[in-house]
């Protein structure tokens, strides 16, 4: 069996159509930012990519852009907090993939901060549902496409954060949820690895230049299914206050780019990391080492 797997890996490494040729991937939160960059990188490596995001217009634009560049992408927009949407997402992804799904990247998310004594139940419940509940439900719904013995690679990547690894003031909800997905990842690896060869890993990001770390005054926001509008980003005054020391605890002295962050996702699902599972990979520029 080990010899057969080695031959399959070698074939993928030498395949001219890309490292992920023949694979179908669901990437949540992929209409923009890290998710969109991951979708483009996956498509460049031959994968069929399903764009999952609550923003229908941006989902379509991202899928159209990938298709125009010669890749294969399908936009399936919707609210990842909806059980019905998750079922529909899996169904359409499997149809797009000719009856198969090979990769899930649980990337969708945002922050809704508040200090512990002022955090509302809605803030708490929404963030835990988004960052912990939704990934579990998506993996559970896609189980029939991962618990298979067809010799093809299967990967699940759960996105975490340094907040989940180390905690962060004002982010009790986000920190708990992001810490929780590391346990989910290890459980998937232990349950689905032995019989089915499924690999599961967590990527924990540090400072990445996205709308979550931009100035709140730029107007970035997300709208929940019930119409609640949540402002994203960090207040400009707070950013100004840390200007001189913003990156002093990062050995590379800068934030990462969305493309760099997405490249780590591609790396972990690629055959180059075929013997890596159950791990939390810190992509932080060296912060907190």
From TrEMBL:
<dbReference type="InterPro" id="IPR050259">
    <property type="entry name" value="SDR"/>
</dbReference>
<dbReference type="Pfam" id="PF00106">
    <property type="entry name" value="adh_short"/>
</dbReference>
<keyword id="KW-0521">NADP</keyword>
<protein>
    <recommendedName>
        <fullName>3-oxoacyl-[acyl-carrier-protein] reductase</fullName>
        <ecNumber>1.1.1.100</ecNumber>
    </recommendedName>
</protein>
<dbReference type="InterPro" id="IPR036291">
    <property type="entry name" value="NAD(P)-bd_dom_sf"/>
</dbReference>
<dbReference type="GO" id="GO:0004316">
    <property type="term" value="F:3-oxoacyl-[acyl-carrier-protein] reductase (NADPH) activity"/>
</dbReference>
<dbReference type="InterPro" id="IPR002347">
    <property type="entry name" value="SDR_fam"/>
</dbReference>
<comment type="similarity">
    <text>Belongs to the short-chain dehydrogenases/reductases (SDR) family.</text>
</comment>
<dbReference type="InterPro" id="IPR057326">
    <property type="entry name" value="KR_dom"/>
</dbReference>
<feature type="domain" description="Ketoreductase">
    <location>
        <begin position="23"/>
        <end position="195"/>
    </location>
</feature>
């Amino acid at each position: 069996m080990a010899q057969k797997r080695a031959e399959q890996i070698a074939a993928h490494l030498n395949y001219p159509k890309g490292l992920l040729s023949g694979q179908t991937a669901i990437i949540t939160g992929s209409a923009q930012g890290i998710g969109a960059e991951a979708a483009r990188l996956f498509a460049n490596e031959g994968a069929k990519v399903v764009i999952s995001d609550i923003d229908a217009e941006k989902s379509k634009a991202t899928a159209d852009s990938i298709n125009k560049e010669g890749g294969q992408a399908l936009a399936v927009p919707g609210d990842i907090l909806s059980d019905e949407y998750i079922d529909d997402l899996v169904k359409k992804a499997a149809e797009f993939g000719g009856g198969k799904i090979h990769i899930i990247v649980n990337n969708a998310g945002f922050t809704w901060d508040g200090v512990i004594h002022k955090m509302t139940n809605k803030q708490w419940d929404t963030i835990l549902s988004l960052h912990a509940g939704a990934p579990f439900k998506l993996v559970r719904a896609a189980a029939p496409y991962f618990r298979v013995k067809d010799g093809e690679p299967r990967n699940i990547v759960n996105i975490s954060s340094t907040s989940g690894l180390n905690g962060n003031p004002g982010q009790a909800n986000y920190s708990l949820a992001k810490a929780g997905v590391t346990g989910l990842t290890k459980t998937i690896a232990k349950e689905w690895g032995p019989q089915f060869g499924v690999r599961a890993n967590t990527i924990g990001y540090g400072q990445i230049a996205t709308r979550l770390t931009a100035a709140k005054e730029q107007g970035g926001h997300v709208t929940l299914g019930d119409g609640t509008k949540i402002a994203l980003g960090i207040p400009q005054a707070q950013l100004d206050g840390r200007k001189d020391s913003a990156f002093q605890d990062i050995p590379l002295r800068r934030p990462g780019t969305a493309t760099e962050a997405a490249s780590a996702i591609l790396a972990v699902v690629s055959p180059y990391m075929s013997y890596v599972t159950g791990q939390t990979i810190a992509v932080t520029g060296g912060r907190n080492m």
